[in-house]
Design a protein that fits this description.
Two copies of one chain form a homodimer.
Chain A: E1 6-10, E2 13-14, H1 21-36, E3 44-47, H2 49-58, H3 60-82, E4 85-86, E5 94-95, E6 97-103, E7 113-117, H4 121-130, H5 134-151, H6 164-176, H7 186-204, H8 212-226, H9 230-238, E8 247-253, E9 264-269, E10 281-286, H10 290-295, E11 301-302, H11 305-315, H12 319-325, H13 329-332, H14 334-351, E12 355-362, E13 365-373, H15 378-390, H16 396-401, H17 409-412, E14 415-416, H18 418-422, E15 426-429, E16 431-434, E17 437-443, H19 446-454, E18 459-463, H20 471-476, E19 479-482, H21 490-498, E20 501-504, E21 510-512, E22 517-520, E23 523-526, E24 530-534, E25 539-542, E26 547-548, H22 554-565, E27 570-574, H23 578-586, E28 592-596, H24 599-602, H25 606-615, H26 619-643, E29 648-652, H27 666-676, H28 680-690, H29 702-707, H30 709-728, E30 734-739, H31 745-766, E31 773-778, H32 781-785, H33 787-790, E32 796-799, H34 801-809, H35 820-825, H36 842-856, E33 861-864, H37 872-881, E34 885-888, H38 893-905
Parallel strand pairs in A: 4-5, 17-18, 18-19, 19-20, 27-28, 27-34, 28-29, 29-30, 30-31, 31-32, 32-33, 33-34
Antiparallel strand pairs in A: 1-2, 1-3, 3-8, 6-7, 6-8, 9-10, 9-12, 10-11, 12-13, 14-26, 15-25, 16-20, 17-24, 21-22, 22-23, 24-25
Helix pairs in contact in A: 2-3, 4-5, 5-7, 6-7, 15-22, 22-38, 23-26, 25-26, 26-30, 27-28, 30-31, 37-38
Chain lengths: 906, 906
């Protein structure tokens, strides 16, 4: 017996079913499934993906021979189910078909489609007559010629030329003085049919085929061909879809919502996609085609009475006007609506998720054209998952897996008021560097930001770019706008850490520090003028736009509880201040994975002690300056350890090169000279001396601690003293001291000695002991390669995947903006490796480091503290590698928690 | 039976032998061996290394108990052989002993020694009497007290204090008005003995032990203790000597060359250590101790008549004067000399290598104190290896293995005339950045160097630091001196590539470009003044010092032939010009492993075409500028491919970031604007735009070729056109096109497509085809990690270990000077990883890259083109990893060839 290559469906029956996606593709399987559960779907049949493979191997003729009789049977079944005749010459209503692709995975917009197939000079007349709508019939016919000519026969505009079909339409428009396609009459459409046929003949040398079978075979093969277009191949590469899968072809009867006043078309959602509310909703139009609903030419109407009333209230439309001009489907076609309502419930119950439906009513009969899981906002996603769980529709694991972790971000930051934003005026668009909404008065300098904020003003800090000296200003601002810098610029990284709205790299704005003004979107703003930022989209708005604070609703909490129950990895946070630590703890962080101590050196008077140390010529001088820093650092650590009481706090020793602490501008150098009582030449020569060609690969990290051991000693003392003070108060401080930028075990050995010796001294002085760990950041490729050696000394590893990515790829984050966008665009990279961990390459180092590290020290605690610690696919990787925890910025903690739980449930 | 812990030797007998180094240490085994072959050696015994291990585990008492009787037997045997009595109280001549360490590997100066052991108030009197030389006796006694007090009893100067023994001596000197130690009388020495005993008592609280056995045991244990001093441990770490080896202790009878006119002491070499000539030579002094020969107080005399005559001629001393004042040992003690001559021949024949001997003649009797393989110059090394091979003393493999590859460097560069250098005045010392000697007139600018050299002047280019713009100036200079930059600075790397003498990082010199002057060693030099550089030592000399060109003697050629016969890996060169290629070919290079194309862009007018391209706003503009470069590059490649005709030439596509081609100084920017007909603002803004924070990790390598494919296209065209032109002339060009800085296979894929498409076009245009390869540099860690993927496209890999080291370690070569010296000093690093490949870490990437690459493409050709390709231990590693070739700068080719051959013979 011949193998089965064609699966029919229709009239409540189907030869395939929902779980046959490999063979029938997603769409085909779904069409079959809908039939089986009694949803009215236009009949048709699916040609399997195997045929696509055979087509690629053996070509058209072999395939036609193989499946000819099966396709003919499919058409016959379709005719029966739809009570129509393919290529009718008069006896029955002509059956028109759509031919669509349908691969195992969705490839939206990549593949070919042909509609209205079966139209020819004979059938069009019957349809014109039977539908009593000649314009509709000839419009459908000319559309078919255009589509078929384009997709199957290869009519193409030549370089610099307009589309020849459009040219033909324009000619008529011009001669008749029409302004819109809707002005065309039935006669015009008839003329167009002739003109389009001429175009086809002229362009291809072939006649447009009147024979519907010829039309059908041509269309089926065109769909197979579209599997191998360049853009389809690129799309598959980017989305990891194997070329061997192939596409199925779905041939299905056409139905029309534009056949008169008893026809209609619409879209609907089984729940509210914006809020998640469990309420059926959607829009429809009478006597219209699908595209009319979304095109905005006519105002679509609500399908339910309740929805219609809400809408009218919102638009300030009276109930009478509403009933007369914008009645709901429930009112206009109550019987059909009841059937639709039943169908939507059936579909949601069947698929156990919110469905996005397309339907058409042809001459009073409801047809479902599509159902799929609906897109939703973050808030709706959470609400639906919890409510469906409560309704018993899904189980806990399913509810958890329904959460797209990244979407939680929407719930955690202020957003613009929905009404206010509608009337806002967009000035320009930068990069969405750190999500949230912000509105405030423009200031240009960090100290002015502090000053203004100090007197209660809301400010937006506008800069060409930010530097560590701007930290305090950024901290008090509502949001930050920069002209330069990418998604990983200083401004972006720091703002994300603070959970603060930031738009970076808004290249079009022109900042003048001298005049304290900025030109945005052609308009000049002075200091004190209001602007607003959307850090989630990168948009910059004129003036003040009201914002709304996030409400972490009960459903959010419930989802987090679900995650907590089934997770293996814990989630820590990257935090440098007690405030950040508290925020993160509220979001469920269990400890700090990275506390950067250098940020503490920039604040206020501290920078002067730091600079004094840098200028010192000898150990004595450095120790004197370090004494001052010791006092301040101890206080910092007390605050942070207290905020995370009972949880581990990983404190990284000084990391950045010393030149980050010295000023480059002549005035600032003079100030420094005066303040520290030395000549400007001394300052200048020190600054020159500290200059580096590649600071990223320079004198930083533990290279500082190993050339100036007194710095590590001071920091170790500050940490241990702080811990002792807290313990004496009955607290439970758990410091974990992290040595940065270790590349050889010898570096760690020397630092470890300093730390342990210092700790012993402090314990003796204080008469109290605290437990602490000493470990290292694995951020240099060589550290991962020699992790077994390093783990002989380290008690923990924390993968610094930011630097590991910089060095592993040889990409400077500050400079990669010049080629990364091009690389992403050309498909050289699938993701920005600073956002999504490169599992193929850098991941090898992470895995190697973990495995080698544990081989030498089975008790080794392993975590990650790069930006990747808050990125879901990277979190999943960390789980797979066997890490103990991930650490991310406070506002990413909930995202990481969900991702970690999901990883454990896969 | 008790285990044997003590091995005696003496009187032509020995219980151990030469191959027992593990048990007896190097020295002990050698002493035994010399006895066995009939060389007169003072008798004694060796305590085995096992005892050291037992001492470390069980302590002194256990060890003494274990070996007491064996040591007593050793002393008794020694007494018998030497006809002397240990601790004699009158009946016999007292036996005095030396106690020395002797580990398996030499640890010069690291361990303790005690001499003249056995001296006490009783024996000193007997010796004074029997030797008839009380001053000698008491001098030896006080030296013993000093040494024993220091080494065994722990007498130490306190902080800030002078050595207390020296203080005691100074007191006598002062009171007697002596100027030198030689002024001391026998009575003074007696006084010193008393004073020294007082010092011991005061400092240690203990009496100096008169009992010789107590002296002996204390000294033996002190030697064991010195195995575990901090410096010894550090030395072992640095030299990979296991702590478990332990040291043996050699107890040996003392002999004295200072017992009168029939005593003497000397050192000798079986061949000439400077030239390699097969002639016995050495120096001696009558009535002297070993240290007198080297101290320079008395003029040592030659041992042979021939040597003595040569010396006298050199010193312009008449034959009469010579005979009277400086007679040879051959003349003074003909019998002893004859015995010595016999011994030296015996030793060289036995050890089959040039021996460095120490001997003492005590009262007319010859004693050999030490023999070891002698140190030698590079020239001597080569001559001896070949002559010993010719003499049948060693076989070919041994001759080959005798060559220390790095020492060949001495033979390949000009050196200073031996006479001239003696009177030269050293001004300062920088880093020995590139070997050789150079003398010339100071110039400060590259264009002036060209101008001066053009009119036949010899010039030394003196700069703060060099940049690619200085290349032509460096090329015509005799040598380069820079104030800044380390061993891997631009100046150093380029100079080594050119085989040109360079002293870099001479931090003390002060360069003033404005005044065209430089202060060196306190003296101001103007443009045109003469200085001289020794690039092998870093020394800078005042004025003109004559140099001598290297002579690549026949022996050098013979050694190279030996290497050629037994090597597996071939050696290529890194060369950017036909001249360099020819030089390297003469040295035996078989192809070019790295031809950097960017150097070609800096020369003369070319920089302007390059800058025009950089300034161009669009593809058209860039193509126009590239057209100009195409013509010039094609010529370059013709020259290079022709110079290496028949061998593979790996040409790397453009690598450095574009900002290296644009000027930073305002004047130069103005010149550029004028020359290219744009405003200065345009130039400035382009320069600003190209600025990078970490250029090392920026927009360079194939990131340029993938954002501006037209550059790769132009270069591919230039290479293939050049090859076609040569092939048409009957030549055999073999271009291998190398894509730099690949981190993902996709980058290489795109470049590969461009190259292959361009090549096909050229072949069609020219009507001729040439074979060529397309491959990549593996210099980014991620490339090594994903080498299997990359090898699916690449036909060859060339490891760029310079960048791989930079990124793998996270060290910027330009900045590492701030911490690398400290790291080397503290033992964090054993070698500068830019000079010696880090096999533990970076080596993993190299091995992984090779293995993974070959797994995907078994025909993959693999080589290395970093600086490491000319460093012997790294070359050996490359051989082990299975590379096909190494590539290094032309002047390192012979070194690499020897290293490669030796690797294959290990």
């Amino acid at each position: 017996m011949a193998e089965k290559y064609v699966y029919t469906f229709g009239d409540g029956k189907a030869e395939g079913k929902g779980n046959m996606k490999e063979l029938l593709g997603g769409k085909g399987a779904n069409l079959a499934e809908m039939n089986l559960i009694g949803v009215p779907v236009p009949a048709g049949f699916t040609i399997t993906t195997e045929v696509c493979t055979l087509y690629n191997q053996q070509g058209r003729d072999a395939v036609v021979e193989l499946i000819k009789s099966q396709v003919e049977r499919g058409v016959a079944e379709t005719e029966k189910a739809m009570n129509a005749v393919f290529g009718s010459t008069g006896e029955g209503f002509p059956l028109l078909l759509s031919v669509r692709s349908g691969a195992r995975a969705s490839m939206p917009g990549m593949m070919n489609t042909v509609l209205n197939l079966g139209m020819n000079d004979a059938t069009v007349k019957i349809i014109a007559e039977k539908s009593n709508n000649p314009r509709f019939a000839y419009d459908s016919y000319r559309r078919f010629i255009q589509m078929f000519g384009d997709v199957v026969m290869g009519v193409e505009a030549e370089k610099g030329e307009h589309d020849p079909f459009e040219v033909a339409m324009d000619k008529i428009k011009e001669s008749k003085g029409y302004t819109s396609d809707t002005d065309f009459t039935a006669e015009d459409m008839m003329q167009l049919v002739e003109d389009f046929k001429t175009v086809v003949k002229e362009r291809t040398g072939n006649e447009f085929p009147e024979n519907p079978w010829e039309q059908l075979w041509g269309s089926v093969m065109a769909v197979f061909d579209s599997w191998n277009t360049e853009r389809a191949i690129l799309y598959r590469q980017l989305n990891n879809i194997p070329d061997e899968w192939g596409t199925a072809v779905n041939v299905q009867a056409m139905v029309y919502g534009n056949m008169g006043e008893t026809s209609a078309t619409g879209v609907a959602f089984t729940r509210d996609a914006a809020t998640g509310e469990d309420i059926f909703n959607g829009e429809y139009l009478v006597n219209a085609q699908g595209e009319d609903v979304v095109a905005g030419v006519r105002t679509p109407q609500e399908i339910t009475i309740e929805g219609s009333k809400r809408w009218a209230a919102n638009q300030s439309i009276s109930e009478d006007d509403r009933k007369n001009k914008f009645p709901s489907l429930e009112e206009v076609m109550p019987t059909v609506f009841a059937e639709l309502n039943e169908v939507q419930q059936k579909l949601e119950n069947h698929y156990r998720d919110m469905q996005d439906l397309e339907f058409t009513i042809q001459d009073g009969k409801l047809w479902m054209l599509q159902t799929r899981n609906g897109k939703r906002t973050g808030a709706a996603m959470v609400r639906m998952a919890i409510e469906m769980l409560d309704q018993g529709l899904i189980d806990e694991k399913t509810a958890l897996m329904r959460i797209e972790p990244n979407k939680l971000d929407e719930l955690l930051h202020p957003v613009f008021d929905q009404q206010a934003i509608k009337s806002a005026n967009t000035l320009t668009k930068g990069l969405p560097a750190s999500p949230g909404a912000a509105t405030g008065k423009i200031v240009f300098f960090a100290d002015e930001a502090e000053e203004w904020a100090g007197r209660g003003e809301k400010v937006i800090l506008v800069r060409l770019e930010t530097s560590p000296e701007d930290l305090r200003g950024m901290n008090v601002a509502e949001g930050i706008l920069t002209a330069r810098g990418g998604m990983t610029s200083h401004a972006a990284v720091v703002a994300r850490g603070m959970g603060k709205c930031c738009v970076s790299g808004a290249g079009e704005i022109k900042v003048s520090y001298a005049q304290k003004s900025v030109v945005i979107g052609g308009k000049t703003y002075q200091e004190g003028d209001w602007i607003s930022l959307n850090g989630s989209t990168g948009e910059v708005y004129d003036g003040k736009v009201a914002t709304v604070d996030p409400e972490l609703s009960g459903n959010f909490g419930k989802i987090m509880e679900l995650a907590e129950k089934t997770t293996r990895m814990s989630v820590r946070t990257n935090a440098d201040t007690p405030h950040d630590a508290q925020v993160a703890r509220k979001f469920g962080a269990k400890g700090i994975g990275l506390c950067r101590t250098e940020h503490m050196f920039f604040e206020g008077e501290r920078i002067w002690a730091m600079r004094e140390m840098i200028l010192a010529n000898d150990l004595e001088g450095r120790r004197k300056a370090l004494e001052k820093l010791l006092v301040m650092q101890r206080e910092d650590f007390e605050g942070i350890l207290e905020a995370m009481d009972g949880y581990g706090v990983t404190i990284r020793l000084l990391d950045p090169p010393l030149h980050e602490f010295t000023p480059n501008e002549p005035e600032a150098q003079e100030e420094m000279a005066q303040k520290l009582g030395v000549s400007v030449d001394v300052v200048k020569s020190k600054v020159d001396n500290l200059h580096e060609f590649n600071p990223m690969l320079g004198h930083r990290g533990c290279r500082l601690g190993n050339t100036y051991p007194e710095i590590s000693e001071m920091q170790a003392r500050a940490i241990i003293e702080a811990a002792c003070i807290l313990k004496a108060k009955g607290k439970d401080p758990r410091p974990e001291i992290m040595v940065p930028l270790v590349g050889t075990v010898e570096e760690l050995k020397l630092q470890n000695e300093i730390i342990r010796e210092t700790a012993e001294k402090v314990f003796e002085e204080k008469g109290i002991r605290v437990d602490y760990l000493v470990g290292t950041m694995i951020e240099i490729p060589r550290a991962a390669l020699t992790a077994d050696k390093i783990a002989e000394v380290a008690e923990f590893f924390s993968f610094g995947t930011n630097d590991l990515t910089q060095m592993g790829f040889g990409y400077s984050r500050d400079d990669a903006g010049k080629f990364l966008p091009i690389y992403l665009n050309k498909g050289i990279l699938k993701h920005d490796p600073f956002q999504v961990l490169d599992q193929d390459g850098i991941g090898q180092l992470v895995e190697m480091g973990t495995v080698k590290g544990r081989s030498a020290n089975p008790k080794l605690k392993v975590g990650i503290c790069g930006e990747h610690g808050g990125e879901p696919s990277s979190v999943e990787f960390c789980h797979r590698v066997g890490m103990d925890y991930v650490s991310c910025s406070p506002f990413r903690v909930p995202i990481a928690r969900i991702a970690a739980a999901q990883a454990n449930n896969r």
